[in-house]
Amino acid sequence: MAKIRQRKNSTRKETIVDTAARLFRERGFAATSMRDLAEQVGVEAASLYNHISSKAEILQELCFKVANQFISNIDKIEAEDSPAIKKIEAILRFHIRQMLNHYEEVYVSDREWKHLTDPYLSNIRNQRRVYRQRIASIIEEGIRKNEIKKIDAPTAVLIMLHAVSGIESWHRSKQKISGEILEENMISILIEGLQKK
Amino acid sequence: MAKIRQRKNSTRKETIVDTAARLFRERGFAATSMRDLAEQVGVEAASLYNHISSKAEILQELCFKVANQFISNIDKIEAEDSPAIKKIEAILRFHIRQMLNHYEEVYVSDREWKHLTDPYLSNIRNQRRVYRQRIASIIEEGIRKNEIKKIDAPTAVLIMLHAVSGIESWHRSKQKISGEILEENMISILIEGLQKK
DNA sequence: GTGTAGAACTAACATTTGTTACCGTTAAAC
DNA sequence: GTTTAACGGTAACAAATGTTAGTTCTACAC
To answer: Who among B169, B185, B193 is closest to A193 (CB)?
Structure first.
């Protein structure tokens, strides 16, 4: 009775993890109980454990899945032969699109990774540190080559990445502009600033 | 025995709320227990209730205190007779300084307000919506007066406010640049952009 | 010294939490 | 038709949670 509703092309486990991502975004990891999750999935709490091994595992899967996507992307971009400012723009556009298209996962992994436990916690901490460092290096290269103005690179990274997470407000807003227009606006503001030149 | 360590010029309640702010930032509201808080304060959990009425009340105090500061500030700035772009800069600088000087409170109230319960939840939701709307209006005024480039105002607000919350990373980083330099960098990037003109 | 108010303590409470053990049902494999 | 593995349910667990009741201590006013 009440089997997990299988969406086509997804295993039961994926259904659980996807639903968890939505709940973790809405309520936070700590404030979401396995019984909440079970209810949304349409099953008793204990039955979830036929598909996952713990609540913690769900968060781990979400965080590492998202982290891998961003790392693959920056691997690719770093290898390209283009101006640093274009690389930064490309990274920004990737972040924006990931937030547009995989909102729940990306948002949760960005906000809730602190609830991981070791060794996963240290692992993600490192990955995040290295990732930001790689972006900072591109910015510094851009400064040297006179493509980017002289600013503190870590500060620029911090602004970029956090600005993107503001897309959460866009998702929750009533009258949305289109995703494409949002992307162009964000790029325009971050690359060229607010002020009219 | 073990009376609450009173820092000068602060009541016991303030000590509790300040300590709670630190823990809520580090672990999140839901993941912080009253026993955790009591331990940090140096007291048994039950003793906290001589000074506060509930865990929820602590979060309420934090959120409304911070909200009031931002609203007072925008009241003042709106009343000034200066270019819209300068008003936006002033709002930004206020946000940056609040994040620098009252980090724990500001950060917590921005991240954890979702754990409020009605009527406080609806109240804060409204306040936040109205606040962002007021900033958007200033931006739109700036666009009309040709001080600010043509962009979607709500998107600009979203970037501004979220970028500022990135100061969290700065606080946690090892080798910090000074607060003043951070502020100038952030203003420079957001007002003028990353790209060299 | 005695009284009083504030503030700490101990003990306990009802819930909620993540999780396990165990059993029943179903649908496909043979 | 029988076997088997997948997957659902029920019941229960120990631990942790926010909070209350009642008691004891402490510091100051008189």
So the answer is: B193
Strand D, CB < 7 A, residues 20-59 of B: 32-36, 45-46, 49, 53-56
Listed in sequence order, the residues at least 6 apart from A191 whose beta carbon sits closer than 8 Å to its beta carbon are A85, A88, A89, A92, B193, B194, B195
User: Does residue B133 sit at the A interface (CB-CB below 8 Å)?
Assistant: no
Considering the four listed CATH numbers 3.40.190.10, 1.10.10.60, 1.10.630.10, 1.10.10.10, the one that applies to the domain covering A1-53 is 1.10.10.60
Chain A residues 38-67 within 7 Å (CB) of strand C: 45-46, 49, 53-56
Q: Which residue's C-alpha is at the least distance from the C1' of C11? A: B46
Architecture per CATH, domain A56-194, reads as: Orthogonal Bundle (1.10)
Q: What CA–CA distance (Å, rounded) separates A77 from A51? A: 36
CA quadruple B39, B45, B50, B53: dihedral sign: positive
Sequence-distant (≥ 6) Cβ neighbours of residue A57 within 8 angstroms:
none
pLDDT value at B196 more than 80: no
pLDDT tens digit sequence for A149-183: 999 999 999 999 999 999 999 999 988 899 999 99
